[in-house]
Amino acid sequence: MTDSKYFTTTKKGEIFELKAELNSDKKEKKKEAVKKVIASMTVGKDVSALFPDVVNCMQTDNLELKKLVYLYLMNYAKSQPDMAIMAVNTFVKDCEDPNPLIRALAVRTMGCIRVDKITEYLCEPLRKCLKDEDPYVRKTAAVCVAKLHDINAQLVEDQGFLDTLKDLISDSNPMVVANAVAALSEIAESHPNSNLLDLNPQSINKLLTALNECTEWGQIFILDCLANYTPRDDRESQSICERVTPRLSHANSAVVLSAVKVLMKFMEMLPKDLDYYGTLLKKLAPPLVTLLSAEPELQYVALRNINLIVQKRPEILKHEMKVFFVKYNDPIYVKLEKLDIMIRLASQANIAQVLAELKEYATEVDVDFVRKAVRAIGRCAIKVEQSAERCVSTLLDLIQTKVNYVVQEAIVVIKDIFRKYPNKYESVIATLCENLDSLDEPEARAAMIWIVGEYAERIDNADELLESFLEGFHDESTQVQLQLLTAIVKLFLKKPTETQELVQQVLSLATQDSDNPDLRDRGYIYWRLLSTDPVAAKEVVLAEKPLISEETDLIEPTLLEELICHIGTLASVYHKPPSAFVEGSRGVMHKRLPARTGSGEGTECPDVGNAAGGSAPEAAPSIIPSQGDLLGDLLNLDLPAVLLPLMGAGFGAAPAVMPASLNAPVGGGLGDLFDLGGGVGMPMGAYIPPKTVWLPAMKAKGLEISGTFARRAGVIQMELVLTNKAMSVMTDFAIQFNRNSFGLAPAGPLQVLTPLGPNQTIEVSLPLSTVGPVMKMDPLNNLQVAVKNNIDVFYFSCQYPISMLFVEDGKMERQVFLATWKDIPNDNESQFQIQDCHLNSEAASNKLQGSNIFTIAKRTVEGQDMLYMSIKLSNGIWVLAELKVQAGNPNYTISLKCRAPEVSQCVFQCYEAVLKN
Amino acid sequence: MQLPAKMIHSLFLVNSSGDIFLEKHWKSVVSRSVCDYFFEAQERASEPENVPPVIPTPHHYLISVLRHRIYFVAVIQSEVPPLFVIEFLHRVVDTFQDYFGVCTEAAIKDNVVVVYELLEEMLDNGFPLATESNILKELIKPPTILRTVVNTITGSTNVGEQLPTGQLSVVPWRRTGVKYTNNEAYFDVVEEIDAIIDKSGSTITAEIQGVIDACVKLTGMPDLTLSFMNPRLLDDVSFHPCVRFKRWEAERILSFIPPDGNFRLLSYHVSCQNLVAIPVYVKHNITFREGSSQGRFELTLGPKQTMGKGLEAVLISSQLPRGVLNTNLNPSQGTYNFDPVTKLLSWDVGKINPQKLPSLKGSMSLQAGASKPDENPTINIQFKIQQSALSGLKVNRLDMYGEKYKPFKGIKYMTKAGKFQVRT
């Protein structure tokens, strides 16, 4: 006696049989027939031919039969619009039925029938149902408005249904409120600019009240709607957070995650010294952990979101590392996500545990997972310096297992470790070389070749090793070919005598026998470089490489902020902005986190992204941004690539350079504005070194350039004085910088608007940006400049005071300062003496502040003033300083601590310059 | 122009052999060919449970859950919170199980009309409508053999004619007019311990997932309070909506008007930061020697911190390395089985007698000439401990207000192994 009987058919043909039964006089038989029709529908059979017969069964007082017919109608009305019209009368009648269940059912079904003719008839019944005395009918009608809007938006607006819907937000029944919110949110999505959900403190209050009483699904709608609101101030923000936190204990994980979204967004506005802020942080961890004990599908979505949350606020889960440990029977998609989060949470405190786990994972069965685990070990080494040694030895252990893909993956990550810690772990090279033959993946081969080339002088048989790769040169992938070319050139430069033949061989393979333009070009460049100036070639090819950054795959901050606003959505699962991938989402507005409001926080730095608790400095990027795996390799090339165009024809083509004769009024005005800004905003005035001659006239066919650098109102300026000491007029000035340590680049063209006559002088100020290409220079603050005029191109280098890179929000919080000071290893500390300085500590502090060196705290010990200061560079590097000033002693002692200790020397020079001027 | 459809568009039910055996569309019909993308993913996955839960296709997203070896595949067309969909799908499965006793392909096919009515009732235009089992049962009566017979004879229906009473009240989870002759309220405190134990026997991570499941059959509108001896253990809890959160926050007392019948009152999580007692230990010696075609296998189990309660229904399973051809093992008790195809070893131990510890010893034969396996097998343990909650959680008292009668009350404790793994 089960429903499976509805699937059996007879020989005569199913449709025929059903037709007869549907038209039977017996009620029972009719009902059974409709059930058979529905059963066919559930397995995707086409029973639309029965439309008129089924519709005929609609006029009945049997609720079950009516429901079944409605089900059928919804499925097929669209393909039979003319027939569907027959049903309208019954619908309209049912909307007046005394039983609210039937009224709701009718209005609900009508809304699902996407046939224009029917929607016209729907308006009146819908209007009545929206004002029905029974809340069950009202809440059904609310959803119906969204359905109707989907079919005919204009109609809904003309009929004033949107206003009625807005009124329902104030309904006495929470279920009705929730459904009205859901319907409005859906409609608002297709009208991004309409002010449908007019969120104000009153309506927010209503929503918060309804939140406590409506069903779990309604809570999700309301929370998602709340997340779109921007509170007026931190107090309102806090009060909303307080009312939302109980949702964190809900059994429905979607409710929990929506609540997390609201809290993550609104806590952005809370002052961090507020007790409540800390409480909230603590409250967020347990529900996130609980999500991980749910079904694997839920875990997956939760993990993708946690990945975002730990990037934004690592402090929330920093003690919860263990819940991310992988169980061997977790589905693979859960394993991979957990691994990712483990790396993000890895720190000095837990690295031993993490490594032990990763090593365990590297012996599992699943190849993808094992590879990722090995890669993770490498990432740990790069992220947590103290663990590097242990990571390397773990990787060596893994290489000993001789499992092919483990070995290859290990070699790829060891290359990165060499990049991060040069000249530290070269002892392992021998072990690596043993595995040369087993490498069959391009990435691993390329990594190995890079290592051999880079350390050629320490590998006795480097030439043999590289030669062995050369045999099958044309069968290798481009990645390997390029790497091999560079490695052999490096080898040649290091051991020229023995390897001449080899280098010739590779150059001819690359330039003559290859179809690959990249390979050919690189081959030619090396060839010419080697033949014209071997010394220059050495400088270029064996140049010191920039360090690679700690975390490679962090989500870019603006995207991260947007994704945080979309926690729980598909966007958060794919880590892509919502506009990027969902079909039909037109005009999606980009959401941003609210800015912190200022109450009681005047001194705090506005840089929210970096200010997150004690971990700010950890998040700060290291000196050079990562440029991907091929970096080491490309860098060898990039230098000539930049220098070459500087030398001739390429100059005019550079996009940043505009012919000076072209009068650009906007740009000119801009320059003036910046000039004007100089006097404003800085009480003390930043230190500006006196102008010096950078390019004497003798070296530049009569053009003399002197200048200096300044930071005015947050803008870095290069102030130049151009003097024409030649006999002819100079025009068409342009300027370009070579890559430099901090990415300085002209923010606009050089504004020399009139031709410069003989013996004329002009002062120009050139605003600079710090977003240009980066290359480490020696000394660090060296800047190579090319200036062009109608006569020729001239080069000079100058050194800028690093103080002009000190940004205005460089004041660190005290706790953060303390934590960071302790956290930076002592090796990174350097001490300097500043002699003959006669300022007291107060005056010194004021003077330094003018150059964005901020005093955070002062302590007096035995007549000695200790000033603690912080500096933030334009590329996010923090420098912490301790300045000791003893009354009556003109010699100061200064200790500098920084994660990138190479800047210390320059910073010290600035201290000296600022204090003595 | 077709506007983006919100929420869940369609649902397909797919069995383990990859056939669609039910489809339901809440909006226009989506061709079942959309599932081809799912089948592709299914083919790629090494194990059924490895199919990714969110799959993008050119025009839709497929969000699926796997339960009872059936994939429930929801089709969505625009931005919908995936957790919302997954939670809803789980609710669908729970409802089916509730209605039909089991959630199998056969049961669903046997009740296809009820299934269809249920799905229609649970979702309207993609918005969840009624998902509380109490309300659903008033709208659509669960099939029983008796009712089917009666319906056939009398021609009455299995669809409720009245608006469910609970639907709009302040306590939507409870219907009015409940009546029982025997009033009873039973609570089961069930804890599952998840743990990873390393080679040397020390705990890497251990956590407890606990739930309190209730079966409440009380007349009228009873208002219950439940208090604990040690509520402090519960700092990470998820409640059934009936629990008054404010009261819990203030007094650490659970106060609620219960739904009628079976429901989960709360679930909780005791994290690895608290000390979790490990109730069982394993001594193992699983070794392969290079160049030998034999491996040794020795396993001994024993009780650890069980608070004097016995370990029951102990079951060991382990995925042995691929290189193992067969095993020749000797269990001191229970039965063991090794499947040479899947390489799955399982040993049904039964009870552990602390005086005579169970062991499984013997040899494994390996492929001749093959190198020794790289991976070490992980041992999975299942067990039960009756009358004890491992975290030590204890109910203090259960009181009823609002009704005059005296109910029967009962509280049971049980501990089970969840994902309890020992690395070797």
Automatic annotation (TrEMBL), chain A:
One of its GO terms (biological process) is intracellular protein transport. It is a peripheral membrane protein. Pfam families: Adaptin_N, Alpha_adaptinC2, B2-adapt-app_C. One of its GO terms (molecular function) is clathrin binding. This is AP complex subunit beta. Keywords: Acetylation, Membrane, Protein transport, Transport. GO terms for cellular component: clathrin adaptor complex; cytoplasmic vesicle; endomembrane system. Residues 593-619 are annotated as: Disordered. InterPro entries: AP_beta, AP_complex_bsu_1_2_4, ARM-like, ARM-type_fold, Armadillo, B-adaptin_app_sub_C, Clathrin/coatomer_adapt-like_N, Clathrin_a/b/g-adaptin_app_Ig. Belongs to the adaptor complexes large subunit family. It is found in: Endomembrane system. SUPFAM superfamilies: ARM repeat (SSF48371), Clathrin adaptor appendage domain (SSF49348), Subdomain of clathrin and coatomer appendage domain (SSF55711). It comes from the Eukaryota. Residues 806-916 form the Beta-adaptin appendage C-terminal subdomain domain. Residues 687-797 form the Clathrin adaptor alpha/beta/gamma-adaptin appendage Ig-like subdomain domain. The keyword Protein transport applies.
TrEMBL record, chain B:
The keyword Glycoprotein does not apply. Pfam families: Adap_comp_sub (PF00928), Clat_adaptor_s (PF01217). GO terms for cellular component: clathrin adaptor complex; cytoplasmic vesicle membrane; Golgi apparatus. Gene3D superfamilies: 3.30.450.60, Mu homology domain, subdomain B. It is found in: Golgi apparatus; Cytoplasmic vesicle membrane. InterPro entries: Adaptor_comp_med_subunit, AP2_Mu_C_sf, AP_mu_sigma_su, Clathrin_mu, Clathrin_mu_CS, Longin-like_dom_sf, MHD. It comes from Oncorhynchus kisutch. GO terms for biological process: intracellular protein transport; vesicle-mediated transport. This is AP-3 complex subunit mu-2. It is a peripheral membrane protein. SUPFAM superfamilies: Second domain of Mu2 adaptin subunit (ap50) of ap2 adaptor, SNARE-like. Its main location: Golgi. PANTHER family: AP COMPLEX SUBUNIT MU. Residues 182-423 form the MHD domain. Keywords: Cytoplasmic vesicle, Golgi apparatus, Membrane, Protein transport, Transport. The keyword Glycosyltransferase does not apply. It comes from the Eukaryota. Belongs to the adaptor complexes medium subunit family.
